[in-house]
């Protein structure tokens, strides 16, 4: 799987703030690469093709070619939509057919400025206070921290499938698929909860 070296769009200082803020909102997300996920999303058009849609049909983690590592080229309409979403409309007529759009890059610039470059060094209580002062950015960070924690690792987060392992999800298993035994409903434990799956998908 392709791994990037260093931030692409975020500065090293902002990368550290995103990691610390994401970890405050979704514990464990910093270690799984949430800042890399956000950085790759914001800098998607620094790559050719843009890192928007991973290819396929298989990840290569359970056999088959690692097609997810090859990103797909975007059509003209897709590129316009994603550039507008990420970069904003920037006063360009073709991006403002529904009015001006504030892109994710601008939201992160303003939000990170509000959190401050010293955010990662603050106490948990101080971090919570700063996040609470920017509720819209906090909500955006929370959404991206969840995506980075539990999305496919090819997008930069969920490093080593750690997010999946934490919730007992084996991840994609194609082309191996599932055995008949794995498809059976799991037996409930004494407390009524189904057993958690292991990394290979077995209960």
Brief summary:
The chain has eight helices and no strands. It is mostly helical.
How are the secondary structure elements laid out?
Blueprint: H1 12-25, H2 34-42, H3 76-87, H4 104-115, H5 124-132, H6 135-150, H7 162-166, H8 180-183
Helix pairs in contact: 1-2, 1-6, 2-6
Describe this structure in words.
The chain has helices spanning about 10-25, 35-40, 75-85, 105-115, 125-130, 135-150, 160-165, 180-185. The chain has about 200 residues and is mostly helical. The chain has one domain. The longest helix is centred in the C-terminal third of the chain and has 16 residues, at about 135-150. The model has no long low-confidence stretch (mean pLDDT about 90).
Unreliable stretches, pLDDT < 50, 5 or more residues?
none
* Largest β sheet strand count, sense and barrel closure: none
Tell me the number of strands: 0
Overall tally of structural domains: 1
Rg calculated over all Cα atoms: 19 Å
Assess the beta-strand content as a share of residues: under 5%
Helical content (DSSP H or I, runs of 4+): 25-40%
CA(first)-CA(last) distance: 27 Å
Discrete helix count = 8
- What series of H and E elements makes up the topology? HHHHHHHH
Shape: globular
Please identify the structural class as seen in this structure.
mainly alpha
Regarding quaternary structure, how should these chains be classified?
single chain
Q: On the 0-100 scale, what is the average pLDDT?
A: 90
């Amino acid at each position: 799987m392709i791994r990037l070296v260093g931030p692409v769009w975020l500065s090293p200082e902002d990368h550290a703030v995103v990691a610390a803020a994401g970890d405050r909102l979704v514990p464990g997300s910093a270690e799984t690469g949430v800042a890399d996920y956000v950085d790759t999303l914001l800098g998607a058009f620094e790559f050719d093709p843009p890192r928007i849609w991973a290819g396929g049909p298989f990840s290569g983690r359970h056999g088959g070619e690692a097609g997810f590592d090859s990103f797909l080229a975007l059509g003209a309409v897709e590129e316009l939509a994603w550039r507008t979403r990420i970069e904003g409309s920037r006063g360009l007529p073709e991006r403002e057919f529904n009015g001006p759009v504030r892109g994710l890059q601008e939201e992160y610039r303003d939000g990170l400025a509000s959190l401050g470059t010293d955010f990662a060094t603050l106490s948990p209580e101080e971090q919570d206070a700063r996040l609470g002062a920017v509720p819209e950015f906090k909500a955006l960070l929370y959404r991206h921290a969840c995506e980075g924690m539990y999305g496919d690792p090819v997008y930069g987060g969920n490093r080593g499938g750690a997010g999946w392992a934490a919730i007992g999800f084996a991840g994609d298993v194609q082309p191996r698929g599932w055995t008949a035994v794995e498809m059976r409903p799991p037996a409930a434990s004494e407390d009524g909860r189904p057993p958690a799956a292991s990394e290979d998908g077995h209960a």
